[in-house]
Write a structure and sequence with these properties.
heterodimer; A: about 325 residues; alpha+beta; Rossmann fold; 2 domains; eleven-stranded mixed β-sheet; 11 strands; globular; B: about 290 residues; mainly alpha; Enolase-like, domain 1; three-stranded antiparallel β-sheet; two-stranded antiparallel ribbon
Chain lengths: ~325, ~290
């Protein structure tokens, strides 16, 4: 039967089933065995679809004009953000449990202004020029941060020393083939450790239309779009890098914007031209991060307790599911 | 012994030797029993019937020896001796095993042994340090991630988002008194006034009326009838003065919040700056007293 249907269609004949007198035929184009013929039929089908779509559009537009004021509002186009699969760990702003958790987690002392952030930035072994410059620029962006080079020292041995010297956070920038490609952010007095993959790193000189160097003023922090519990904790991690009281005189702002699980970091200087317009000028390095794992204690790759690991097979199955 | 020369003549110089590797400057020998690694008359294990090497297996070094007596028994050809772990004692063992052997082989054996112990020490040291773990990249996944990042960047519209956030913060007065945009402050003050006037007693309303009486002179001259048409149904209070005040407030509020207004706004908007100035002159002292 299929062969008959296919044969009939191959001759560009009438419809295979007499019940629906349709043109084009309703069998699937992919059933034709001959490639050239199949290709030809597919192109024809595609053209048909396009024509129908155009006609439908025109009709809709005409209806809209005819109705005038009473026309129904325009349909909202579907975006990935609209179609996002609802994550049950999305934080509700009024959730008490979340508020309680956040009041008692490792960042509570920072948010209660009991500790002042002091950051140590370091790299993997033998950093190359780009990574070194990136570290310097990063340390100019984050106030109260110091860059130290690690000459073969194990992280596990550095950490107790850092804690002894009152550092609150440790940033390790991993390098591969002369470009930085990973970031480990560890909150020190046994705080969580987040491991990110870093991409699109742009140093200051590679940014077009950039301003002058960032000054010593404490910048403001903007955290956008961290909706789930996981996103919230990562957002708090980022917020705890910067001192609590921004100096508005400096007019600098550091932004961590989460979009589809990618965290974009930008550093700008802003100026209010009027009460409804603001101009921003990008200073500072820029990079994007993608969270790979979140560990409960400080950096310990073997025995650490992982709160979240990105498992590609399980988590990347749907295009509309995001975790941050 | 003479067969050695024949072997060397054949393999080394004329015909093919499968262990030989030729490069531009040098010939190497791939034979695992070779002492130096080069393809020489004195280093070729095939062309010397009395030969010795050092080889290491699993961190232990062995001395392998081959003598002409066993040349007919390939299975028993190479005799192996385990060397001592101690470097000096092992050297003495080499010496006593290779006593009466040609100087070249003895010397090269000791050199090879030294080299091997050095690299074994290095291996042991390195395994104590952190090893760099190589993680293979998967090309398809890398490409996919890159593409998704680009799309996410486009969807993020970072500049707009940042500007919006900054304006929000300005509105919520996080910047305090640094930026004086009077309209903004006046907006807020007016909104406060609104809230107070709706909830409190008539005394307040009378005060408002007093102010509005002053205002009315200017405002009515400037306002066209358009402003009377608009927002009429939205207003709840009865007095004209309050109507005007609230109209302006509504206009401002609606202007700042929604953009899709009827085209009647056009001329009103043009007149707006003029009106604003009047308001500031009239009511700034009033707002100050209200705040106090």
């Amino acid at each position: 039967m299929a062969g008959d249907g296919g044969g009939a269609a191959a001759e560009d004949g009438g419809p295979p089933t007499p019940a629906r007198v349709l043109f084009p035929p309703t069998f699937s184009v992919s059933e034709i065995k001959n490639k050239q013929r199949r290709h030809f039929m597919f192109l024809r089908w595609k053209q048909q679809q396009r024509k129908e779509k155009l006609a439908a559009k025109k009709k809709r537009r005409k209806e809209r004009e005819a109705l005038g004021d009473k026309a129904p509002p325009k349909a909202i186009p579907k975006t990935i953000e609209n179609q996002r699969v609802y994550d049950e760990t999305t934080v509700d702003p009024n959730d008490e449990e979340v508020a309680f958790d956040e009041a008692t987690d490792e960042f509570a002392p920072y948010f209660n202004r009991q500790t002042v952030p002091k950051i140590l930035i370091t790299t993997s072994d033998r950093p190359r020029g780009r990574t070194v410059r990136f570290c310097e620029q990063l340390s100019s962006v984050i106030p109260n941060s110091h860059v130290y080079y690690r000459r073969g020292l194990a992280l596990k041995r550095i950490i107790p020393q850092c804690i002894a010297r009152d550092f609150t956070d440790l940033i390790v920038i991993n390098e591969d083939r002369k470009i930085p490609n990973g970031l480990v952010l560890s909150h020190l007095p046994d705080g969580p450790t987040a491991h990110f993959r870093m991409s699109s790193v742009r140093l200051r000189k590679e940014i077009k239309r950039k301003g002058k160097e960032p000054t010593e003023h404490v910048p403001e922090v903007i955290l956008n779009n961290f909706t789930t519990r996981l996103g919230h904790s990562i957002g708090r991690m980022f917020a705890s890098l910067f001192p609590h009281d921004p100096q508005f005189i400096g007019r600098q702002v550091a932004t961590f914007h989460n979009q589809r699980d990618y965290i974009f970091f930008r550093f700008h200087r802003y100026i209010f031209k009027s009460e409804k317009k603001v101009g921003i000028q990008e200073l500072g390095p820029r990079f994007t991060l993608k969270l790979r794992s979140l560990q409960k204690g400080t950096f310990d790759s073997k025995f650490g307790e992982y709160e979240w690991i990105h498992k590609r097979r399980e988590m990347d199955t749907s295009r509309r599911k995001f975790h941050l | 012994m003479h067969s050695d020369d024949v072997v060397w003549d054949t393999l080394g110089n004329r015909q093919f030797c499968s262990y030989k590797i030729t490069t531009k400057t040098q010939n190497f020998c791939r034979n695992e029993y070779n002492l130096t690694g080069l393809c020489n008359r004195s280093s070729c294990p095939l062309a010397n019937s009395q030969y010795a090497t050092i080889r290491e297996e699993k961190g232990r070094c062995y001395l392998y020896m081959k003598t002409i007596e066993r040349a007919a028994f390939p299975r028993r050809l190479w005799e192996r001796v385990l060397l001592n772990k101690n470097y000096e004692k092992a050297l003495e063992e080499i010496d006593e095993n290779l006593i009466y052997w040609p100087r070249f082989i003895r010397h090269k054996c000791k050199q090879r042994f030294t080299k091997i112990t050095q690299y074994l020490i290095r291996i042991r040291k390195l395994t104590l340090k952190r090893q760099r773990k190589l993680v293979p990249l998967r090309r398809k996944i890398e490409r996919r991630e890159k593409r998704r990042e680009e799309k996410a960047l486009v969807a993020a519209q970072l500049d707009n988002a940042i500007e919006k956030e900054l304006l929000e913060r300005l509105k919520q007065d996080t910047y305090g008194d640094i930026y004086n945009f009077p309209i903004h402050a006046f907006d807020k003050a007016l909104q406060q006034q609104d809230a107070e006037s709706e909830s409190e007693s008539d005394a307040e309303k009378e005060e408002d009326d007093d102010e509005d009486v002053d205002k009315r002179e200017f405002v009515e001259a400037d306002d066209s009838d358009l402003s009377d048409f608009e927002d009429m149904d939205k207003l709840e209070t009865s007095s004209e003065e309050e109507q005007e005040v609230e109209e302006e407030v509504e206009k401002k509020a609606s202007r700042s919040k929604s953009k899709g207004k009827t085209p009647l706004k056009g001329p009103a908007r043009r007149k707006r700056p003029y009106i604003e100035i009047e308001y500031e002159k009239e009511t700034e002292p009033a707002t100050k007293t209200k705040a106090a």
